[in-house]
Every structure is written in C-alpha cells, then in structure tokens.
Amino acid sequence: MPRTALRVRRWAAIAVLGGLLAGCGTGEADTGGPAVAPGSAGARTSTDVRPIEAATRITDAKGVTVSLPKPPEKIVCLVALCDDILVELGMTPTATNSQVLAHPKFLGEKKAAEIPVVPGGFLSPEVEAILSHRPDLVIGLADTHGKLAPALKGATTFWPVQPGSWQDSVDYLRDLAALTGRTEQGEKAEKTFRTRLAQAEKRKSDRTALIVYGSDENFGVATPESDVAAGLFPKISHYPWKSRGVDGSYSLEEILARDVDVLFVETLSFGAPDGKLSDKLAENPLWSRIPAVKNGKVIEVDSEVWAKGRGTRSLGVVLDEATAALR
Which of 209, 246, 275, 290 could be a cystine partner for 19, CB 3.0 to 4.6 Å? Predict the structure, then answer.
C-alpha cells in the first residue's frame, strides 16, 4: 500500500502513533486482570464502574499530568475524542476542528454549526485562533499537536492525548470528568458504554467482519493494533486482521480468500467529497466476488464517528451499527 494512503489514515483516523500502536495494552485496566494482546477477544468486559473523584490535577494513563487552578469551562478541541467526551459530560467545546458534532447522536447539524471552527484544519490549527477563545484547556493529539505546546504555554493549558484502545478512551473520559467536576456524568457514560459492549460480547457473531478505509483504490485495512474502533471487533465477531506495519496492508486477493461476510467501509475525503470508496473498489473485478459484496452486506459508515471519534459515544454508535449488520 503506498505511503500516501497510510498518511491519509494517520491524520484522518488519528489512530497511529509513530506509524503503529503496537504495544498499547488492551487489557481490562480497572479489573486488575492481565492485559490481553491487541486483536484478541480478551476477558469479558466488566460493567463495574469505579467512582470518579473531582480533581484539579490528574495524571493520565500515558503519564501526562494536567493541573488546573479550577474546573475548566472553556475547552478547545483539536481532536474528535475531546468533542466526544464533552458531549458525554453534557458540555460543548468552545471551539473545535472536528465534524463529529454534526452527527445526530451528538449535537446534530444545526447545533454543531453554532460551535466556532478552529481554522487551519486538523494538521495545522492556528494558534492565534485557538487563543482568541481564551480557553482554560486545549486538548489535542500528542503526535500531531504536540508541536503547538510551546506556543500555547503560559496562555493556556495544553493536554496531549493519544488513545490506542477503548480502555484509553474510557480513561480519558474519567480524567476529564474529574477535572470538570462532572463525575456523575462521567460514571454514567462509562457505565452505558461498558454495558453496551458487554451485551454485544454475549451476542458475538461468528461472521467474518472487515473494516476498510481510504479515498481511492489504495485502501487500507483497519486493525485492532492501530485503530480504536477495530479493537472492538474481535469481541463481537471473527476479525482475523493483524497490523503489518506502516508499509504493509492487505490485497483484495487476500481479502477474497478470507470469505468476508460483512464489510464496513470508511470513505475518507479531502475537501469536497469525490465519491464512495466502495464504488471505486467496485471497479476491480475481484470486489464482486467477496461474499459480503455478493450478499449486499457492504456498509458505508460515517468516518467522522468510526475513524475519528474514538470516545465512548462514538464507539457506542460503532457497536450499535456493527452488531445490527452482523446479525
């Protein structure tokens, strides 16, 4: 797979750390059980939720310490995980560069349009624009927005996040709930997600699933080691896809050999949309031979939620849509 397509996923799905998230544990962090290998079904998800205590200082699961003089009220989101968490906590960002808020399970298009957009896009958000909102806290992706930290220092607090699994997403939810003092909302959101995942595990499908992403025929396969949403799939289906590193992916020939029953497609676009990825892949004669294609089980999903959201609300949408398709 060309490097350009991999770079697409790196910024659009925001799921790769240095090209890989291999080594990020996906064990049950709050149960005291051993970590399980990425991509394995692992232990059954616990629905127990530990109490969250309000705090002005936290150290997240990646070792980053955030200290604030008071609960933040004005938060600028440079990564969709931030928007996701705020909605779960009953808040909205002061400004954002994500489109996930327009999804009906979030704010919807009308309310989302009222949130100011940080110019510069995901890769290069403008520092002056960020600071013009006088934020108490700015949340961005560590390996993309970390370079902004020096420019923000002294004017606001910058929190670099780097989710590699759903457990990381839950930890970030808990941390922001503690910092904002919205502990009950945080506990409720975590409980809702854990319950949804546990229920999906009980109804695990024996069908083979696959998530592909891209903007043209140079598609990629989302693997549990490098994609938070894909990390859920070994728990709810047969998902035999493993990361091959930054320079490797799967061919249509290999996918055809795996007898994929249900195929989820994330179309990533730059600027104006230029068509669905599934339509472009259909130009390859091998595409029509895949069982999922033959049986009408190719589902184009919202990449803003599936690829970029990665918080408990987004992952809840993924679970709902995936389990319905896998029945």
Answer: 246
Tens-digit pLDDT profile for residues 159-203: 999 999 999 999 999 999 999 999 999 999 999 999 999 999 999
Provide the token pair at 74: 């004005």
Per DSSP, what are the bridge partners of residue 298? 263
End-to-end CA distance of the chain: 32
Residue 158 identity (one-letter amino acid)? F
What pLDDT is stored for residue 274 in this prediction? 73
Beta strands in the chain (DSSP E): 57-59, 65-67, 75-77, 95-96, 137-141, 157-161, 209-214, 220-221, 262-267, 298-301
- Exposure string of 78-115, with b = 16+ CB inside 10 Å and e = fewer, is bbbbbbbbbbbbebbbbbbbbbbbbbeebbeeeebeeb
- Length of the chain equals 327
Tell how strand 262-267 and strand 209-214 pair up: parallel
Q: What is the pLDDT of residue 272?
A: 57
3-state percent helix, strand, coil for the chain, nearest multiple of 5: 40, 15, 50
- State the pLDDT at residue 206: 97
- Cα separation, 61 vs 51, in Å, equals 17
> Which DSSP string corresponds to 278-298?
HHHHTTSTTGGGSHHHHTT-E
Q: Please tell me whether the overall predicted TM-score, pTM, comes out greater than 0.85 for this model.
A: yes
Helix, coil or strand: residue 34: coil
pLDDT band at 34 (very low <50, low <70, confident <90, very high): very low
90: left (phi over 0), alpha (psi -120 to 50) or beta: left
**Phi/psi class of residue 59: alpha, beta or left (left: φ > 0; alpha: ψ in -120 to 50)?**
beta
The neighbour count for residue 221, using CB atoms within 10 Å, is 24
C-alpha 118/C-alpha 104 separation (Å) is 21
Residue 59, helix vs strand vs coil: strand
Q: Is 241 exposed, middle or buried (0-12, 13-18, 19+ CB in 10 A)?
A: buried
In this prediction, residue 218 carries a pLDDT of 77
